[in-house]
Amino acid sequence: MRDKKKASKDVAGALVMVLQLGINVIVPILLCTVIGVMLTNHFGSKGFTIGGILIGVVAACNGAYRYLRGYLKRFESKEKHD
Known about the structure:
mainly alpha; elongated
């Protein structure tokens, strides 16, 4: 019984990690793209949209890296205590 609870808790933790990682990637890209489009519409240069997308991708990679690094540290410390 205890193994089933631990297995379901591990699966739930992995699912939360995947969902959080998806949010950490999608939100910066969409937000920076929308800001870039708004600046493009205001100033009339397509460089703002491209710049917004690039900044969003860099921010998404940075956020995903930081999240995964923290997750792996928590995972390793959890294994040491078990």
